[in-house]
Amino acid sequence: MRSAADLAAHFNIDIRTPDFWRLGLNLIRQDIKCLEALVG
């Protein structure tokens, strides 16, 4: 078994960087805003 970081590195993704997590959280924020607009 490999760690999540090792598996992601296989796809040239570094999950150890703050930018990776910022991007992921920004995508979630955008999804929430879209949902709020739909139910608004």
Weakly predicted, low-confidence segments: none
SSE sequence, one letter per element: HH
Q: What structural category characterises the helix and strand content?
A: mainly alpha
Mean pLDDT across residues: 97
Into which percentage range does the β-strand content fall? Answer: under 5%
Biggest sheet layout: none
Name the helicity range.
over 70%
Q: Rounded to an integer, what's the Rg over CA atoms?
A: 14 Å
Helical stretch tally: 2
Total beta strand runs: 0
What separation lies between the terminal Cα atoms? 44 Å
What's the number of structural domains? 1
**Apparent shape:** elongated
Question: Can you give keywords for this protein?
Answer:
elongated; mainly alpha; 2 helices; 40 residues
Structure description:
This protein is an all-alpha fold. The chain has one domain. The protein is built from 2 helices and no strands. The chain starts with a helix and ends with a helix.
Secondary structure elements and their pairing?
Blueprint: H1 4-10, H2 18-39
Provide a short characterization of the protein structure.
72% of the residues lie in helices and 0% in strands. The chain is mainly alpha-helical.
